[in-house]
Design goal:
Length: about 280
């Protein structure tokens, strides 16, 4: 039998001690994770990112054990459904909160997957489609070679990983497009994303998902995950919730991500080991 992640290489003792409160009462605990850089390695072409082997199975196993299991990502929710849904899943959809439910939240909270397969949009988000489309067209028309302009419908991201020298252009052009369209610019890993100017981010999503739980953790790797870390810290102070923010780090991780986390693990493989240990045998 092939060992599951977390059995062959369990997390270090310090990590297991930090996460112990979640294991003490899984029926009242929440496990929330990012996708890129956490469940999936960072790749040059964002459309080719895929979850690590075993990640989908682990999410299913976790969802049968913990009160809340969710993936909160900058990806469109359609991408998450396509790549994180177990193969061969049949039968009627599961109602929210039932055992086996994995909540999929895309575009930093602008989109959520409903049990019937439809998409639930953040109130007021759809009216920004035209502004985002105009920004995407503007950026695509002037992007230097190697720069990828990813149009996500309700957000647009400019990636310069394949053209490292174009970072200055990307930031300036994205800033101009944001001002023209009334959008908000958010820096990321060799990228900048334009999103509707709405009061929603990974922090507001995490707070909504884990409210009512006794313990919660969040795994993330980028600046966009900082609001999720902050939300957990606030819940610990306000409600006495046991919370753990886990930074999934590599050589290009921003210092602020490491400083904001309660603990760090090295890369998506180590993140999967953490999830495998939480899922149990």
């Amino acid at each position: 039998m092939t060992p599951v992640p977390g059995e062959e290489h369990p997390p270090p003792p310090a990590v297991r001690r930090a996460l112990a409160p979640l294991m003490a009462d899984p029926g009242h605990s929440a496990i929330v994770t990012d996708f890129d850089g956490t469940l999936s390695p960072i790749v040059d072409d964002p459309t080719r990112a895929r979850p690590l082997a075993g990640a989908v199975d682990l999410l299913e196993r976790l969802s049968s054990r913990f009160a809340v299991v969710a993936v909160v990502s900058g990806r469109p929710v359609s991408f998450l459904v396509e790549h994180l849904s177990p193969p061969g899943r049949g039968g009627p959809p599961r109602p929210p909160g039932s055992a086996g439910t994995v909540h999929l939240v895309g575009l930093y909270g602008l989109e959520r997957s409903a049990p019937d397969g439809s998409v639930i949009y953040e109130p007021g988000a759809l009216r920004w489609r035209a502004a985002v489309a105009a920004a995407a067209d503007r950026l695509q028309s002037s992007a230097p070679p190697g720069v990828v302009v990813e149009d996500k419908g309700l957000a647009v991201t400019v990636h310069w990983r394949r053209a490292p020298g174009a970072g200055g252009w990307a930031v300036a052009a994205a800033t101009d497009a944001a001002v023209a369209g009334g959008l908000s610019a958010h820096p990321g890993r060799m990228s900048v994303e334009l999103r509707p100017d709405l009061a929603v981010d990974k922090g507001s999503v995490v707070r909504d998902l884990v409210t009512g739980c006794a313990a919660a953790c969040y795994l993330g790797d980028d600046l966009g995950d900082l609001p999720a870390f902050a939300a957990l810290s606030d819940l610990a102070a306000e409600k006495g919730m046991d919370t753990v923010s886990v930074a999934v780090v590599d050589d290009e991780s921003a210092v602020g991500v490491l400083e904001a986390a309660d603990l760090t693990v090295s890369g998506p493989g180590a993140a999967l080991s953490v999830l495998g240990w939480l899922a149990g045998p």
